[in-house]
Amino acid sequence: MRVLLALGGNAMTSPDGRARPEDQIAAAEVAMRGVADLVARGMDVVVTHGNGPQVGNLLVKNEIAAAVVPPVPLDWCGAQTQATLGFVLMNALDAALRARGVDRRSATLVTRTRVDPQDPGFVRPTKPIGRYLPKEEAVVLVEHGETWEDRGERGWRRVVASPEPLEIVDATAIDALVGAGFVVVANGGGGIPVVRGADGGLAGVEAVIDKDLGAALLARSVHADVLVVATDVPHAVLRFGTPEAEPLGGVTVARLRALAAEGHFASGSMAPKVDAVCRFVEAGGTRAVISNLDHIVDAVAGRAGTVVTPG
Ligand SMILES: Nc1ncnc2c1ncn2[C@@H]1O[C@H](COP(=O)(O)OP(=O)(O)O)[C@@H](O)[C@H]1O
Ligand SMILES: NC(=O)OP(=O)(O)O
Fold it and tell me: Which residues form the Aspartate/glutamate/uridylate kinase domain (predicted)?
């Protein structure tokens, strides 16, 4: 069985949302123990991950240091997060595999995702990245031309362009690595966004692709049997945040689309996860699950989490 596991930003930071190196290393060690459990059961696993906090922090560092060293564009920041987070995940995964006596190795692939240069996401930024700030600090940055939006009790957050993923450019290489027996970390942050020019060449573009939508396309591109979207809650929840809140267990893709249309899933957080699992199953995937990492083996088997099936 081939599994695509999408690690959310929450799975890559400390419970209080801090993204210090030590927080990310500790979070990766927890996440990779679950992946090693899957590999120990004979599964092929591809891991992808978010990069919202990390790419936003890198962008700020570039802007602050611009007077000292040449700043780099947002797509370069995204590429750097793939290397850094892949490195951290590989160290954690290799250790977890060794602890289980599993003779498999990890690999990370710098991965590009093609987008449409005319995507409306370039006109209306929607993807939250980086740190949270109080409103009074965010509005100063808005006056300097940045786009920030109120993200509720945690504060305001910068938002950038987030175009639709159209093609995982490096899917063939990912598939080859899996076929050679590697546990592969790929398409971090939804992939490095690129556009194809008239000459057929690829060029980076400043944006951050939604990791969950990127994961749905990657899962299809590498012929995964199961897609697991791992976050910090055990299920998607109906009437979330209300006294009538109800965890959602097994559900058909048609029913889940109907529930999404009723507005149960918040944009920018659970909604893209729901969209991603629906896309995967609608495209022929056997099963897709939204859950946390606590019961990853059960989630893959369809025994835990919000389990989406055809129908
Ligand atoms: N209907 C819902 N069911 C469950 N969680 C929801 C729902 N709506 C919003 N959320 C929030 O979505 C969060 C997960 O989304 P997000 O923070 O973007 O995850 P990640 O960073 O792990 O990808 C949960 O922690 C929860 O607070
Ligand atoms: N690129 C992306 O979707 O990252 P997060 O999941 O951390 O927001």
Answer: 1-292
The DSSP string of 93-119 is: HHHHHHHTT----EEEE--EEE--TT-
Widest Cα–Cα separation across the chain: 57
DSSP letter at 32 equals H
pLDDT tens readout for residues 258-271: 999 999 998 878 99
Residues of the chain with CATH 3.40.1160.10: 2-224, 225-311
SS3 label, residue 253:
helix
The residues pairing with 106 across neighbouring beta strands, listed in sequence order, are 183
Is 127 assigned a catalytic role?
yes
Establish whether 273 is a catalytic residue: yes
Look up the CATH number of domain 225-311.
3.40.1160.10
Residues 149-186 as b or e (16 or more Cβ within 10 Å = b): eebeeeebbbbbbbbebeebbbbebbbebbeeebbbbb
CATH superfamily for 2-224 is Acetylglutamate kinase-like (3.40.1160.10)
pLDDT digits (tens, 9 = 90+) for 73-94: 999 999 999 999 999 999 999 9
Q: Which amino acid is located at 117 in the chain?
A: P
Residue bearing tokens 């966004």? 193
Is the distance from the beta carbon of residue 11 to the nearest atom of ligand 1 less than 6 Å? Answer: yes
Q: 51, 121, 188, 273: which one is catalytic?
A: 273
| Any ligand 1 atom below 6 A from CB of 8 | yes
- The 10s digit of each residue's pLDDT in 29-44 is 999 999 999 999 999 9
Examine the residue annotation and report whether 10 is marked as an active-site residue of this protein: yes
Res 128 pLDDT > 70: yes
How much distance in Å is there from the Cα of 291 to the middle of ligand 1?
A: 10
Distance CA 40, CA 190 (A): 27
